[in-house]
């Protein structure tokens, strides 16, 4: 009996073969996981320090603007640089610079400053550097892993991300209570050393194919390429459909107050539930990594996200709300992995940095716009109406993406071997096309 059960269990749980197969990926994963925990600690510490200094929620909200604006402005430039330079060297420069910024965070905390503008400036600088670092860093995994192992590698990265979302703020709270926010900043700067060591051990990561010159023309060529590649464009639109139309976090405080008693501990559970679902989904992600029709499952995951948040708008029971938020988190994590595998498998290396930067901007900007939409609708009507209309509109939008982008639905081994959209007459770019 044991011989028949074990293979089925192995197919169900997360595939760790990339960690065994490639030492460079293993070092990148460990360094990235530790650095992500450190970054979450710093984010927690900045919010806490701003609130302790000002006592103002509006001042805390400015931290979000200081993060978002540099990300949107510099994100596409980061992709242009990644397609022009040795990506390994670029990451070493940006990673070292971010470690210095973490030390500056610690320095201002040790100095005991009562002003918040240094926190805003350092947050903006950190976001600017990350917007350049992330597109280049994301090109490493497709170069290190085969197409067969790529989904499993992206799944492992998503698992590390969701674990950091849960562990980072909690650990930051313990450290801040024990020795102040300066401990969070110091430990964050130390985690960069592990990530930098992993990048230093990589071989040169020069662009394969025609190297572009950084600038407006390069950015425009990247945007044009994504617009013509129906698989990539459809995948990104599915993400925007989910995040812009149905992001729930802005309405959770009001929903908690109106339906679940308003306790801060309950609000904490509501905010943590999607991350818990994400961790569970990634831990049991074997079938996702091995799925053949990744485009279909991407659309299913997007629709499931919308359906779960529709249920959030209908329920008055806390356990149901936590359950559907966990389902939404699981669907979101699955969609992120599938979108990454689809996008990275559908582009040539010379466009990888720019395409990844567009995906990065979409992933960063969509949730902020979605939370804004959710908050406005909740204020004009009710939080339940916001969740209900957002979830339903997401499902409709995902259905329209499936209808308008048949190349995405067909994505899989046959689509990877042929021109996207060839069977429907869509304007498209062949996989691996360099124009």
TrEMBL record:
Give the SUPFAM superfamilies listed for this entry: MFS general substrate transporter
Superkingdom in the source lineage: Bacteria
Keyword Transmembrane attached: yes
**How does it sit in the bilayer?**
Multi-pass membrane protein
Q: Which Gene3D superfamilies match?
A: MFS general substrate transporter like domains
A Pfam family that the UniProt record links to this protein = MFS_3
| Region described as Disordered | 415-435
Under the heading InterPro entries, the entry gives: MFS_trans_sf, TM_effector
Q: Where in the cell is it found?
A: Cell inner membrane
Question: Where does this protein chiefly localize?
Answer: membrane
Q: Which residues cross the membrane?
A: 28-51, 57-78, 90-111, 231-255, 267-284, 296-315, 387-408
**Keyword list, A-Z:** Cell membrane, Membrane, Transmembrane, Transmembrane helix, Transport
Record's PANTHER family?
ENTEROBACTIN EXPORTER ENTS, INTEGRAL MEMBRANE EFFLUX PROTEIN-RELATED
Q: Which protein is depicted?
A: MFS transporter
């Amino acid at each position: 009996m044991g011989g028949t059960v074990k293979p089925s269990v192995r197919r169900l749980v997360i595939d760790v073969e990339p960690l065994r197969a490639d030492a460079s990926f293993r070092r990148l994963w460990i360094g990235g996981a530790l650095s992500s925990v450190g970054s979450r600690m710093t984010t927690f510490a900045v919010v806490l320090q701003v609130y302790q200094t000002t006592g103002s929620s509006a001042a805390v909200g400015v931290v979000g603007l200081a993060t978002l604006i540099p990300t949107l402005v510099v994100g596409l430039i980061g992709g242009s640089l990644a397609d022009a330079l040795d990506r390994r060297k670029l990451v070493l420069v940006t990673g070292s610079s971010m470690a210095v910024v973490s030390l500056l965070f610690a320095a201002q905390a040790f100095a005991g400053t009562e002003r918040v503008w240094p926190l805003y400036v350092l947050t903006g600088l950190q976001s600017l550097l990350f917007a350049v670092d992330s597109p280049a860093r994301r090109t490493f995994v497709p170069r290190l892993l085969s197409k067969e192992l790529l989904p499993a590698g992206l799944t492992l990265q998503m698992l590390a991300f969701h674990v950091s979302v849960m562990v980072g703020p909690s650990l930051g709270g313990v450290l801040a209570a024990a020795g102040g926010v300066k401990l969070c900043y110091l430990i964050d700067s130390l985690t960069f050393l592990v990530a930098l060591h992993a990048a230093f051990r990589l071989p040169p990561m020069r662009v394969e194919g025609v190297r572009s010159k950084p600038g407006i023309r390069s950015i425009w060529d990247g945007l044009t390429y994504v617009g013509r590649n129906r698989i990539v464009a459809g995948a990104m639109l599915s993400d925007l459909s989910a995040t812009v139309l149905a992001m729930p976090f802005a309405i959770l405080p009001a929903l908690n107050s109106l339906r679940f008693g308003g306790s801060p501990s309950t609000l904490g559970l509501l905010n943590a539930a999607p991350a818990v679902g994400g961790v569970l989904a990634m831990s049991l992600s074997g079938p996702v990594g091995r799925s053949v029709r990744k485009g279909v499952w991407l659309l299913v995951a997007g629709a499931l996200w919308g359906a779960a948040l529709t249920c959030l708008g209908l329920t008055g029971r806390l356990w149901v709300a936590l359950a559907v938020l966990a389902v939404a988190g699981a669907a979101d994590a699955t969609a992120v992995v599938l979108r990454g595998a689809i996008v990275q498998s559908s582009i040539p290396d010379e466009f990888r940095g720019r395409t990844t930067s567009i995906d990065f901007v979409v992933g960063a900007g969509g949730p902020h716009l979605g939370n804004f939409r959710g908050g406005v609708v909740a204020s004009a009507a009710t939080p339940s109406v916001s969740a209900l209309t957002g979830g339903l509109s997401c499902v409709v939008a995902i259905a329209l993406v499936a209808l308008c982008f048949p190349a995405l639905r067909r994505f899989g081994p046959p689509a990877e071997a042929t021109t996207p959209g060839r069977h429907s007459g869509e304007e498209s770019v062949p996989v691996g096309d360099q124009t």
